[in-house]
TrEMBL record:
Protein's name in the database: UPF0215 protein ATH50_0882
Family to which this protein belongs: Belongs to the UPF0215 family.
InterPro entries in the record: Endo_dU (IPR002802)
Pfam family, one: Endo_dU
PANTHER family (UniProt xref): UPF0215 PROTEIN MJ1150
């Protein structure tokens, strides 16, 4: 992958009691150079994460972004992202990368929701591609991809993961989302 190829990493941060989660989009080049940031929010426990990420992407107005990487599939307490809808909207491959092995979200969704709220989340969640385990620098990550095949998804994740198991666009986005949340909450300068 060329060093200047750009990916947008999206990660989120919220604290107990928050009704909104801060989403950060960090544009990083494959050579690890940060090249732009945007912020948005979505409802904690809501169903608006897909739309919020679309808004974040279009607010950046970056035609040079080639890939969209998401930290997980259900940010902000089970606000499940529809990777297919997101891929269609942004016209880029979308990869969801998670960092823990799990049997999936169905039982957790059943524990937390019922009725129409559960049905909507299950419908979205079940429509997503399966996760594939990928070993990267001695760590395991689990990847869902829409818009690229499994081999391309693996190359993309590896290209943006210079060390450790977290792709750099997601690592930087997570740090920025946390800092923005603390700032929004009125944290002291040393906390940001």
């Amino acid at each position: 992958m060329k060093p200047g190829t750009r990916a947008l990493g999206v990660a989120e941060s919220f604290a107990d009691g928050d009704d909104r989660s801060v989403l950060c989009g960090a544009v990083l080049r494959a050579d690890r150079t940060a090249d732009g940031f945007a912020f948005e929010s979505c409802a904690v426990g809501g169903t608006d994460a897909t739309a919020a990420i679309e808004t974040l992407f279009f607010d950046l107005d970056r035609e040079d972004v080639q890939y969209l990487l998401l930290a997980g599939i259900a940010p902000a307490w089970f606000n499940v992202v529809d990777l297919h809808d997101l891929t269609a909207a942004v016209d880029r491959p979308v990869l969801s990368v998670s960092f823990e092995s799990s049997p999936g979200l169905e039982s957790a969704l059943r524990d937390q929701f019922s009725g129409d709220a559960l049905d909507e989340r299950l419908r979205t969640y079940r429509a997503q591609p399966p996760r594939r385990r990928l070993a990267v620098d001695g760590d395991d990550v689990w990847v869902r991809a829409v818009g690229v095949d499994a081999d391309q998804a693996e190359r993309i994740v590896r290209a943006y993961t210079p060390e450790g198991g977290r792709p750099e666009p997601l690592r930087v986005a997570r740090l920025a989302a946390r800092a923005a949340r603390r700032f929004r909450a009125g944290g002291a300068d040393g906390d940001v």
